[in-house]
Amino acid sequence: MTTGTGLYIVLVSIHGLIRGHDLELGRDADTGGQITYVVELARALIAHPDVQKVDVLTRRVIDPKIHHDYGEPFEDVAPGATIVRLPCGPRRYLRKEVLWPYLDSFIDHALQHVRRVGRIPDLIHSHYADAGYVGARLAGLLGIPLIHTGHSLGRVKRKRLIEQGMKRSIIESHYSMNQRIEAEETVLDSAARVIASTRQEVDEQYSLYDNYQPRRMRVIPPGIDLSRFHPPARGEPAPPIRRVLERFLHDPDKPMILALSRPDERKNIATLIKAYAENTALRELANLVLVLGNRDDISGLERGPREVLTDLLLLVDRYDLYGSIAFPKHHDAQDVPDLYRFAAKTHGIFVNPALTEPFGLTLVEASASGLPIIATEDGGPRDIIGYCKNGLLINPLDAQRMGEAILEVLTNRERWRRWSKSGVRGAHQYFSWSSHVRRYLTSVHKVIERSVRTASTFKGRLPTVDRMLVCDIDNTLLGDPAALKELLERVRHVNGNVGFGVASGRRIETLLRALKEWDIPLPYLFISSVGSEIHYGPRIIEDSGWQKHIHYRWKPEALRAAISSLPGIRLQAQESQRKYKISYYINPYSAPSLREIKRHLRKQDLHANVIYSHQRYLDLLPIRASKGLALRYIALKWGIPLERFLVAGDSGNDEEMLSGNTLGVVVGNYSPELERLRGKPRIYFAQGHYAWGVIEGIEHYNFLGEVSIPNEEL
Ligand code: GLC
Ligand code: MG
Q: What is the DSSP letter of 496?
């Protein structure tokens, strides 16, 4: 079992294609900015001395149409940082909107991964709604804090689609929008911190949610790999792209007004052209350079870019901008930093006139290159200029003012120099990955400390234990205070590899009350209501997978109606009735026998697990539920072999968990219905009563040492 001193952080990002090299960004809508973010975050986190291990959990894809890299179960992206690919539904590639039904199985695979690692992460950080759904459950099951980054939000998207005139029914069928939004609300319920990229995301986007809790939200802008962006060096030779500009411009060394974006109408390049063209002084002083993607033939493009570029050509012609405007047909990745740097060398400016700009990556790149900026007054630019203090905000619809603002910046040389310098400094200080991680860790350290403080006093947690002691409560654990005290001492003093759980007929509320009354520290596992419910400590998180699992063939109304005609059986009080448990008192003398009751139900095509205890209780549970079945579900889910469960009980509802491969202990004060277990393998009938019997059983199996089963090879 590895226990490290540094943090172990698990990032979850499920959809799209994630690998450590040559990201296929833009290959489809799911493989974009989030993928870069997650991979770079993993690298930046592991580079920090406080972090010891980072896993990125994502979906494993095996599909002839997709590179085989995405089918590899493990890939190291840096020493200590690994992409872990887990099965999630069909093997083929699926778009994110259809992954919902498979996320529960992803959760189970994630738990198995934690068990293989042998160490509980300190933190889970989920990305986007699908991972949020997974992260919220995992964090609950593991009892650790959850951090969430939305990347984009369902309520915002739905609003936009409705504004664009899309029908609600289509939004729902294509985008599984309700499911996404429900997952987002759930993750906001459980996340200790939500990380947003901009202030605006918090104020205007998260505020659309029922669970809007701004005090749990932190604005930490994503890191940007700025290694390629730096200001021009003195005497640096002109870059290759200058040759391209020469074909357009009379004097390429005039101050350059640079804009760089996709040829998309929302980027509002036409207004920038007008702002420039209608300002004579500006035309005199500077060149306008527009880098709008790559193209071969405008007439062959899709309608959107075709219209934007056609419009551009018409404006150039109308305003007669020949010789002072450039719009290169082609550029490659290295030309981009060169362009910023060359623009800075001419004492130029970078302009982003987009109609809306939630983030604005290019603005940070330009800043890091020493180029002052002018941008639309919106979330991203507001934050960037706020941090970098290197430019002006403008109204994207006001061409005249835009032209004036550009001229102002270009003509005030002293201020230009100041802005150029503070932009370089600000970009690195606020937008590098190392600064992101510094702020990130400061924020999460507090969350982690708090979660450690509230943890239960029992050390062993399900994902790391190698054996479990599971006790019934009434008449097994409880009954003799001195015995209980002795038992707890023993369990508490062993290492974290022994887990402790309780299994009871009580409902969870009264079960917790009993533990409190008897001063029993909270265990990590609670099987309650005769096995129909499972919860995990310390925060009493319900295992919703179990509820789904046992729902099968459960018809409570019909069962109740069928039993009501039988003599000698009456319902227990309302509070003993649960969603998956119907409980009766039974008079064994006047009621039909158990076998008759079962036949009576089956004849009506009704199915239930019928459990008889203490010669006075009768419980009906779904056929998939009982204490014993709950225990087997837990063994499977958490990867603990059944022969590593020591189970102690005293009455009929314990029978199933005592039987089979588990190490059974029947305490001395057992009730007669357990007599039939006598002589069965792996059932130890203790002499001692109550917890003394449990202690005797622990010794019988040498459970806290090298587990062994007398008369049997393990
Ligand atoms: C507990 C429950 C009761 C159940 C009995 C036997 O006493 O409160 O509802 O019938 O256990 O399982
Ligand atoms: Mg009992």
A: T
> Rounded distance, CA 534 to CA 540, Å?
9
Average pLDDT, the chain: 92
User: Separation of 471 CA from ligand 2 center, angstroms?
Assistant: 9
pLDDT band (50, 70, 90) for residue 455: very low
Q: Which atom of ligand 1 is nearest to the CA of 584?
A: 10
Write out the DSSP string of 640-675: --GGGEEEEE-SGGGHHHHSTTSEEEE-TT--GGGG
What separation in Å is there between the alpha carbon of 412 and the centre of ligand 2? 85
> Cβ(531)–Cβ(658) under 8 Å?
no
Ligand at minimal distance from the CA of 654 is 2
Higher pLDDT, 578 or 605: 578
Question: Burial letters for 683-712: b for 16+ Cβ neighbours within 10 Å, e otherwise?
Answer: bbbbebbbbbbbbbbbebbebbeeeeeeee
166-173 mean pLDDT: 92
* pLDDT tens column, 292-326: 989 999 999 989 999 999 999 999 999 999 999 99
Measured from the alpha carbon of residue 616, the closest ligand is: 1
DSSP H or E stretch at residue 260: strand 256-260
Please tell me the distance between residue 612's alpha carbon and the centre of ligand 1 in angstroms.
10
pLDDT number for residue 225: 84
Q: How many Å lie between the centroid of ligand 1 and the Cα of residue 552?
A: 22
pLDDT in tens, 520-550: 988 989 999 999 999 998 888 898 889 888 8
The ligand placed nearest to the CA atom of residue 479 is 2
pLDDT: which is higher, 333 or 592: 592
Query: If residue 39 lies in a helix (H) or strand (E), which one and from where to where?
Result: helix 33-46
3 state DSSP class of 256: strand
Contact 663, 701 (CB under 8 A): yes
Residue 457, pLDDT above cutoff 60: no
For residue 530, give the ligand 1 atom closest to its CA: 12
**Cβ 17 vs Cβ 75: under 8 Å:** no
The rounded distance, in Å, linking the Cα atoms of 172 and 140 is 29
What are the distances in angstroms from CA 565 to CA 586, 592, 612? Answer: 13, 11, 18
Which range (216-230, 304-318, 566-580) has the least confidence? 216-230
Rounded distance, CA 693 to CA 542, Å? 30
Distance of alpha carbon 500 from alpha carbon 497, whole angstroms:
10
Q: Which atom of ligand 1 is nearest to the CA of 505?
A: 11
Lookup: tokens for 77: 């992206």
Cα angle, residue 658 at apex, residues 652 and 663 outer, rounded to 5°: 160
The protein residue with its alpha carbon nearest to ligand 1, atom 4, reads 505
The pTM assigned to this predicted structure is 0.72
What is the length of the chain?
A: 714
**What residues are in contact with ligand 1 under a 6 Å CB criterion?**
505-506, 530, 572, 576, 583, 613, 617, 619, 653
Atom 11 of ligand 1 has which residue's CA nearest to it?
A: 505
Q: Compute, in angstroms, the gap from residue 550 CA to the centroid of ligand 2.
A: 23
Ligand that lies nearest to the alpha carbon of residue 613, given by its number in the listed order: 1
For residue 705, which of 502, 488, 490, 487 has the smallest C-alpha distance? 490
Q: Measured in angstroms, how far is the CA atom of residue 664 from the centroid of ligand 1?
A: 21
Residue 456 has pLDDT above 50, yes or no: no
Using alpha carbons only, what angle is made at residue 556 by residues 552 and 558, rounded to the nearest 5 degrees? 110
Nearest CA owner, ligand 1 atom 12: 505
Q: How far is the CA of 525 from the centre of ligand 2 (A)?
A: 17
The type of residue at 575 is E
Q: What is the DSSP letter of 459?
A: -
- What residue's CA is closest to ligand 1, atom 8? 506
Vertex 453: Cα angle to 452 and 459 (nearest 5): 60
Ligand 1 atom 3: residue of nearest CA: 505
